[in-house]
Design goal:
Blueprint: H1 11-25, H2 32-41, H3 43-60, E1 77-80, E2 97-100, H4 102-109, E3 136-139, E4 144-147, H5 150-158, H6 165-190, H7 194-206, H8 210-220, H9 225-228, H10 233-240, H11 242-249
Antiparallel strand pairs: 1-2, 3-4
Helix pairs in contact: 1-2, 1-3, 6-7, 6-8
């Protein structure tokens, strides 16, 4: 997961969402769940809102329309971050939508939405509100996640970030290609090939599992970076290069 910025929706889509939210709010509290699920299931309703919502989600997604949870597969589903069954009034709330792959949405998250037992606070991370780097640490080069908070632990568990072997293997490949990218950027820059260097940085962020590249830059600035990159001193030196950092992070 990486930090994302939520854009504004087209005005027409905003108006449709507001209309359906009012319909749910005007229903008796005991009936709102049924009303919300019924409205969401109507083809005519989804036809009015899906194009604008999906286009905005696609624009804000990492890489080329990647899932906002695993960062690997194509995002195909409009996921309700807080499930309709638990928060019917948020069924048509733009700030409650994230782009998910069908596996994360239907096989992993489903209607799971863990909360802190004492406070009721949501434990899953919303990457448009929370910076995942503050809650999840990618252990390099194993490419498995370690939770830094209860929210980080919940995300690892709900989305199977360490249990899904294909994700772990993909992150290892992403780590290898990310290291190659920073090396290629340095070579191109030293040769004065600045257009090529810019393209290397752009492509690096467009690949699946961009969370690996984000973790590399984040951890290279950590006080314990020498330990975190033990045996990877050349990579760490590149990641610490001010010019390289500025160029890559400007495209994050």
């Amino acid at each position: 997961m990486i930090r994302l910025t939520r854009p504004e929706l087209p005005l027409e889509t905003q108006e449709h969402l507001a209309t359906y939210t009012r319909q749910i709010a005007d229903t008796a509290a005991s009936d709102r769940r049924v009303t919300a699920i019924g409205l969401w299931g109507r083809f005519a309703v989804r036809r009015r809102i899906r194009p604008g919502v999906l286009a905005a989600l696609t624009d804000m997604a990492p890489g080329h329309q990647r899932c906002m949870y695993c960062g690997d597969s194509q995002g195909t589903d409009i996921d309700h971050f807080e499930p309709k069954s638990q928060a019917p009034l948020r069924t048509f709330d733009w700030t409650n939508y994230l782009l998910a792959c069908s596996y994360c949405n239907s096989n992993q998250k489903r209607n799971l939405f863990p909360r802190d037992a004492a406070t009721g606070r949501a434990l899953l991370l919303d990457p448009t509100l929370d910076d995942p780097l503050n809650h999840l640490r990618l252990v390099l080069p194993l490419c498995t996640y370690r939770g830094l908070s209860a929210q980080g632990d919940a995300c690892i568990d709900v989305f199977g970030l360490n249990r899904r072997g294909v994700l772990v293997a993909g992150r290892r490949t992403a780590y290898a290609t990310a290291k190659q990218s920073v090396e290629l950027w340095r070579i191109a820059t030293d040769r004065g090939q600045h257009t090529k260097a810019d393209e290397v940085a752009r492509v690096a962020w467009d690949r699946p599992l961009a969370d690996v590249l984000a973790a590399m830059f984040h951890q290279s600035a950590h006080p314990a970076a020498d330990l975190l990159f033990d045996g990877e001193e050349e990579t760490l030196a590149l990641l610490r290069d001010p010019e390289l950092r500025a160029n890559f992070l400007a495209r994050a």
